[in-house]
Amino acid sequence: MEKKEQLYEGKAKQVFATDDPNLIIMHYKDDATAYNGIKKAQIKDKGELNNKITTIIYSYLAKNGIPTHYIKTLNEREELCKKVKIFPLEVIVRNYIAGSMSKRLDIPEGTKPSNVIYELCYKNDALGDPLINDHHAVAVGACTYEDLAVIYDLTKKINLLLIDLFKSVGIILVDFKIEFGRTNDGEIVLADEISPDTARLWDEKTHDKLDKDRFRRDLGHVSEAYQEIYARLERLAA
Ligand code: 5GP
Question: Residue 12: pLDDT band by 50, 70, 90 thresholds?
Answer without folding.
Answer: very high
